[in-house]
Amino acid sequence: MDAIVKNFPAGQKQARPTQQEAEEAVRLLLRWAGDDPTREGLLDTPKRVAAAYRELFSGYEQTPEEILGRTFEEVAGYDDMVLVRDIPFFSHCEHHMVPIIGKAHVAYLPKGRVLGLSKIARVVDVYGRRLQTQEAMTAQITHAIQEVLQPRGVAVMIDAEHMCMSMRGIQKQGSTTLTTTFTGEFQNNAAEQARFLTMIRR
Length: 202
What we know:
This protein is an alpha+beta fold.
C-alpha cells in the first residue's frame, strides 16, 4: 500500500470508496462517453468494471517485503548471475489509465542468499498491478530486490508497449520503450552490464 500512501500528505490517506460508489462512478463515465448505462448490455457493466479494477490494481494490496521475505542460503557456493527473463506483465499508465503490455528481465548477483525464482516474477506483478510509469516500475523492482536481498547488484530491463501511444495520441502501434536500472556491480562494472544485456538477448 506504500504507493497509495505516498500520493497524500502524512495523515491524509484517503479512504477507499465503497463498491456502490465505484459502480456509480462507472455509470457516470458511461453516460459521459455517450452511452446509456440502463440499457440491457450495460446493466452489469459497473459491477464487472469494479471487480476488474480490484484485480487489475491488486498490487496496492501487496508489499514486496512480504513476497521477498523468504530467501535460501543453501546454494552450494553459487555466486554468479541469477537471471529471470521474459517475465510478461500487464500494467496501466498513470496518465491515461490505459494498458502497458510488456516483458521484464530481472537479474541479481547473489551474496550468500538467493530468492525463489517465482518470487522475482511476483515482484514484477506487484508493481505492474498499480498505476505506473515504466521508468518508476523499473526502479521500484530494482530497489525492492536490492533492499530485501542485499545482493552484490541488481539489473532490470523492461520492454513494453504503451497503449497511450498505440490507441490514442500519436497512434504508433508496435513501438516499444526500453528502460533499465542497475545497482552495485551491474552499475559499476561495464562487463557485468554487457553480460546481462547479452544473456537477455540470446
